[in-house]
Design goal:
about 260 residues, alpha/beta, Rossmann fold, six-stranded mixed sheet, four-stranded antiparallel sheet, about 25% strand, globular, binds adenosine-5'-triphosphate, P-loop_NTPase, L-phenylalanine transmembrane transporter activity, High-affinity branched-chain amino acid ABC transporter ATP-binding protein LivG, transport, AAA+_ATPase
């Protein structure tokens, strides 16, 4: 095992009387591709929302690169190196594909605001670098030919890809993907999974992936965490998860674990 990147200890959140997530422990090591699965309403997205600062946990702690990040605002969490995508695609629909990626890159640009207002040389350097980087990203995602298209006009599968490209443009160490293949056909899903495996290697990323399609998760992830009713009921390799009686029971009536 390599370095511990994310350490989640006894994480929990309560909405009124509902304990949406409780006592969750999770460790992600650098370079891993990990699945987070569970039936509807299990608490997967809520966990993502806590990891990214959207919700402040009621209990427990989140440590990222040896620094406590629980309770930080979302933009701070992004600056620390965690990016995400959303279950329902969130793009700037009225901006072009290139602009969508540039906006993400811009939020972390190192040149000062005054330099950019005055259009000082450092700014130009920064801008050119940014456009080059953004185009390079788009190419990896097969989106370069769409660069001047409005995001809203992209085919659905391409919008999903753009969302991942945008998350990656913020230069994260940890990428959280919330059902990246939702709504995709089998061919698009297959290509997306290949792409995810590729970017993990290419950018030396750690990836945590929520996915409903069991076969897909089993095919790509090295380890899997399983949530049910807000609690972790299992973690292990795909083989271990596949044959875990608690997991099978949790999924009964939901999906078939093949
Ligand atoms: N802001 C909120 N206020 C109240 N309850 C919430 C809130 N956010 C989530 N919940 C509840 O927390 C529970 C877990 O929801 P969550 O969306 O995390 O599940 P999930 O595992 O992502 O489900 P799905 O697979 O259907 O997306 C649900 O009962 C949900 O209704």
């Amino acid at each position: 095992m390599t370095n511990l990147l994310l350490n989640v200890e006894q994480l929990g959140i309560q909405f009124g009387g509902l304990k949406a997530v409780q006592n969750v422990d999770m460790q992600l090591f650098e370079g891993e591709l990990i699945g987070l699965i569970g039936p509807n309403g299990a608490g997967k997205t809520t966990t993502f929302n806590m990891l990214t600062g959207v919700y402040a946990p009621t209990t427990g702690s989140i440590t990222f690169q040896n620094e406590k990040i629980s309770g930080l605002d979302p933009y701070k969490v992004t600056q620390k190196g965690i990016s995400r995508t959303f279950q329902n695609i969130r793009l700037f629909k009225e901006l072009t594909v290139l602009e969508n990626v540039e906006v993400a890159n811009h939020s972390l640009a190192t040149h000062g605001i005054i330099a950019s207002i005055l259009r000082l040389p450092s700014f130009f350097k920064g801008e050119q670098k940014m456009e080059d980087e953004s185009l390079a990203f788009l190419k990896i995602f097969g989106l370069d030919t769409y660069k001047d298209e409005f995001a809203k006009n992209l085919p659905y599968g391409m919008q999903r890809r753009l969302e991942i490209a945008r998350a990656l443009a913020a230069n994260p160490r940890l990428l959280l993907l919330d059902e990246p293949a939702a709504g995709m056909n089998p061919q698009e899903t297959h290509e997306l999974m290949e792409l995810i495996a590729f970017i993990r290697k290419e950018f030396n990323l750690t990836i945590l992936l929520i996915e409903h399609d069991m076969n897909l998760v089993m095919g790509i992830c090295e380890r899997i965490y399983v949530l049910d009713h807000g609690q972790l009921i299992a973690d292990g390799t795909p083989e271990e998860i596949r044959s875990n009686p608690k997991v099978i029971e949790a999924y009964l009536g939901e999906e078939v674990v093949e």
